[in-house]
Design a protein that fits this description.
The protein is mainly alpha-helical. Helix content is about 65%, strand content about 0%. A two-stranded antiparallel ribbon has the order 1-2.
């Protein structure tokens, strides 16, 4: 006959675990002997080993008693259901691991690889770190609103980087981001380039679809620019002076007279 400590050691569990199994009715608690100690026989060791094995396999304690009393068919079906649940848990945990791993992956945390490639291209042409980060945050907002469109848009966005005006705009904006607040000449140059690009897109019909400009995302993107650098407000004023409003939902304010 074994003491509770010997029983626990034999089955590879703690005394506290044995007492807990007694408390929840999972392991019968023997009467005390004349010395006041509880003594356990071989059947208790077998039961405890079974309980430990099932618990180690991930079976909830609330289900172990039913499994121990089940016939072979019922036991197999219950184990199958438990295995299905464990597979779901494993898949969920693997997804969590991938997401946690992306925390060190920089741009790819919340963006598809196509957008990450676009951001890398910006770095290649000399765009400043701060501006690339601002661009990345903007694409994160876009990805949340139009996740299915991002991959479609990237080839056109990459093609724009072949335009010297677009490259110059990014480089000027990089200088603005990294310069002192009083660099008015850079703001003027950026506004000139943006107005020229807007005019070019307007005349060619290369403008976002009206339905894409609905909702609050354009306003969020405009607000992000100002939150990233308050000088964006001044740049917006300069754009208005050149006949264009907004950043994302850009509209012509006055039709040109030819």
């Amino acid at each position: 006959m074994l003491t509770i400590g010997q029983l626990a050691a034999y089955a590879g569990v703690t005394v506290r675990a044995v007492r807990h199994y007694h408390q929840i009715g999972l392991l019968p608690e023997p009467e005390r002997d004349a010395s006041g100690y509880r003594r356990y026989g071989a059947s208790a060791v077998v039961s405890l080993i079974k309980i430990r094995t099932l618990a180690d396999a991930g079976v909830p304690l609330s289900q172990i008693s039913r499994l121990l009393d089940a016939d072979a068919a019922a036991f197999a079906e219950a184990v199958r259901r438990i295995d299905d649940r464990l597979c779901e848990d494993i898949e969920r945990l693997e997804t969590s691991r991938r997401q946690i791993g992306q925390l060190t992956a920089g741009d790819s945390l919340a963006l598809p690889l196509e957008v990450v490639g676009y951001l890398d291209r910006l770095r290649d042409i000399g765009v400043s770190t701060r501006l690339v980060e601002a661009e990345r945050d903007g694409w994160i907002l876009v990805a949340a609103r139009w996740p299915d469109h991002l991959v479609e848009w990237m080839p056109a966005k990459l093609a724009q980087l072949d335009d010297p005006q677009v490259v110059r705009l990014y480089l000027v904006l990089s200088e603005i981001f990294d310069s002192d607040p009083g660099e008015e000449a850079l703001l003027e140059e950026a506004a000139d380039i943006m107005a020229a690009l807007a005019e070019q897109a307007y005349r060619s019909g290369d403008v976002p679809a009206e339905e894409d400009m609905q909702g609050d995302l354009p306003d969020l993107l405009d607000a992000l620019a100002v939150e990233t650098d308050p000088r964006a407000e001044r740049l917006r004023d300069l754009m208005r002076a050149r006949g264009w409003s907004g950043w994302t939902r850009m509209e012509r304010l006055v039709e040109p007279t030819d």
